[in-house]
Design brief:
Layout lengths: L1 H40 L9 E5 L8 E4 L5 E4 L7 H10 L5 E6 L4 H4 L2 H7 L2 E6 L7 H12 L3 E4 L5 E3 L4 E7 L16 H4 L3 E6 L2 E5 L5 H9 L9 E3 L11 H7 L3 E4 L12 H9 L3 E4 H4 L2 E5 L7 E4 L17 H6 L17 H18 L3
Parallel strand pairs: 3-4, 4-5, 5-6, 10-11, 11-12, 12-13
Antiparallel strand pairs: 1-2, 1-14, 2-3, 7-8, 8-9, 9-10, 14-15
Bound molecules: zinc ion (ZN).
């Protein structure tokens, strides 16, 4: 009897040991990785206070300020050279005295033009950039300012995320390697645009996709192909509403409720294009435009369907929100055309003398402004 009880005890101990080891293995290699992955993918809970996204009115360019409940801030692009005063005035207006994360979506002048002005004026903790260069003075000035201020310069890569406090997170979706080379792109396309830094902001149930000047090719061959999470409440429309971005497929997968277009009232690039506006309309997206409405303020407490959008002004009766802007080809020859990939090369003026002086002008302007 005693013998049999002893045998039984051993079996129980062995069984317990097997269960313990099995349980540990299951937890360590199955359950825990699953929970970790879910925790990684799920945004942290929103604090319930207000997050603001301000699409500044910098004319033909981009500059978007994000202020979270935790008091952290991000600035995505900084408009054209000279726009520093607009950006700094906005920082003051929204009580911002520092920038935690400055995102330079790409090296064109309408995005990083005033970056040096901002960097010199307020403390900036981190700068995120694509690393795709541009041989312009603007871009040099930007990198020089980053260097002089000893700011942490980070090359953007998918999977990076930046906690902005209060539950707000910015994630990098692109550029995705291999980077687009000139020969991969449609005629007129360019590497800085196609390899733009694309980020998404998540705050509770609210999300926003910030696309820089990404192209349709970026949408299809990188973001969609790689399964990037492009589903969001608000879309910052790519490339100022260029016809070469915001494809039907991208809109279908994104299921955006609202879209913001940052473009200048007097731009000659044909932004926003009728084609992109028609696609947004067909997808049932409500649009906002800085050229007709000025600064656009998006605020949310991160709850479901909690998005408030206000604009600095109403469109004039003559301004049709769904009307695209024609590209002004001829004007491009006169004022120093910057090739952002929406127009064919400017026609050569007939007058020889005028042509020479214009060419000189165009060159110096292009260098200063940083296109191509
Ligand atoms: Zn641009």
């Amino acid at each position: 009897m005693a013998q049999s009880r002893k045998g039984c005890g051993c079996a129980l101990v062995a069984l317990a040991a097997v269960l313990a080891v099995g349980g540990y293995v299951g937890w360590r290699f199955v359950v825990k990785p699953y929970l970790d992955k879910r925790r990684e993918q799920a945004p942290p809970p929103a604090s319930g206070d207000e997050t603001k996204v301000v699409v500044l009115d910098v004319g033909q360019g981009d500059s978007i300020l994000i202020v979270t409940p935790g008091g952290k801030t991000a600035l995505v692009d900084a408009g054209e050279p000279g726009d520093g005063k607009i950006v700094l005035a906005a920082l003051k207006k929204y009580g911002v005295d520092h920038i935690d994360l400055f995102v330079a979506t790409h090296a064109h002048a309408d995005h990083i033009g005033a970056a040096d002005e901002v960097i010199k004026a307020v403390p900036v903790a981190h700068v995120l950039y694509s690393g795709v260069p541009n041989t312009t003075k603007n871009y040099e000035d930007f990198l020089k300012a980053v260097d002089e201020k000893k700011i942490d310069l980070i090359r953007a890569a998918p999977g990076q995320s930046f906690e902005l406090g209060g539950g707000a997170v910015m994630r990098v979706l692109a550029p995705i390697e291999p980077f687009f080379k000139k020969e991969d792109l449609r005629s007129g396309g360019n590497e800085p645009n196609a390899n733009s830094v694309v980020t998404r902001l998540d705050y509770g149930a609210f999300s926003m996709l910030l696309t820089g000047d990404a192209e349709e090719q970026t949408e299809r061959e990188r973001l969609i192909k790689n399964g990037a999470n492009i589903h969001a409440t608000v879309l910052k429309v790519g490339h100022h509403g260029s016809k070469y971005a915001t494809s039907e497929e991208f809109l279908k997968r994104g299921e955006f409720k609202y879209a913001v277009i940052s473009a200048g009232i007097d731009n000659r690039y044909g932004h926003p294009s009728q084609e992109a506006l028609d696609r947004l309309k067909a997808a049932g997206v409500k649009i906002y435009r800085t050229d007709f409405q000025g600064e656009i303020l998006i605020s949310t407490r991160g709850q479901e369907n909690d998005v408030k959008i206000t604009t600095a002004r109403e469109p004039k009766p003559s301004e049709d929100m769904w009307a695209g802007r024609p590209a002004l080809r001829d004007d491009s020859a006169k004022k120093g055309f910057i090739d952002f990939g929406d127009l064919p090369p400017a026609p050569k003026p007939k007058d020889e003398a005028r042509s020479n002086s214009n060419a000189k002008n165009a060159n110096s302007n292009a260098k200063r402004a940083g296109g191509r």
